[in-house]
């Protein structure tokens, strides 16, 4: 493992997903899933999210579209929160999800809209 890349990834991951979520995921890692936590932190967050080619905001919008296409509700919820942290507005999220309805299917978009509404309600309470 590249410690520098891991630390950079940890910093970005915390800024997008929230320190408490990330720290809990790392702390709860056991012998079985620790290698996955290290891989995700080092390569996903440290290698790709730190690149200059796209802003965090753009990466978040792309992730919402891809996760909707893949029908990954847990990750959609997580990345919706991250998108809000990265400055993606509710209107922009709405547009991304409308776009997914056309290219990924209406049922997938319906699920993501439902999850987005839940996340918005939670964020409005905080």
UniProtKB/TrEMBL annotation:
Its EC number is 4.1.1.44. Pfam families: CMD (PF02627). It is an enzyme of class 4 (lyase). GO terms for molecular function: 4-carboxymuconolactone decarboxylase activity. It comes from the Bacteria. InterPro entries: 4CMD/NDH-1_regulator, AhpD-like, CMD-like, Decarb_PcaC. SUPFAM superfamilies: AhpD-like. Residues 36-118 form the Carboxymuconolactone decarboxylase-like domain. Keywords: Lyase. PANTHER family: 4-CARBOXYMUCONOLACTONE DECARBOXYLASE FAMILY PROTEIN, CARBOXYMUCONOLACTONE DECARBOXYLASE-LIKE DOMAIN-CONTAINING PROTEIN. This is 4-carboxymuconolactone decarboxylase.
């Amino acid at each position: 493992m590249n410690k520098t890349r891991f630390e950079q990834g940890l910093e970005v991951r915390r800024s997008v997903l929230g320190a408490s979520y990330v720290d809990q995921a790392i702390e709860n890692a056991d012998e079985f899933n620790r290698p996955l936590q290290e891989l995700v932190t080092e390569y996903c967050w440290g290698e790709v999210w730190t690149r200059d080619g796209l802003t965090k905001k753009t990466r978040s919008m792309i992730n919402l579209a891809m996760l909707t296409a893949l029908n990954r509700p847990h990750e959609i919820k997580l990345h919706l929160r991250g998108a809000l942290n990265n400055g993606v507005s509710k209107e922009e999220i709405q547009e991304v999800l409308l776009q997914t309805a056309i290219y990924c299917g209406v049922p997938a978009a319906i699920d993501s809209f439902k999850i987005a509404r839940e996340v918005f309600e939670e964020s409005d309470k905080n």
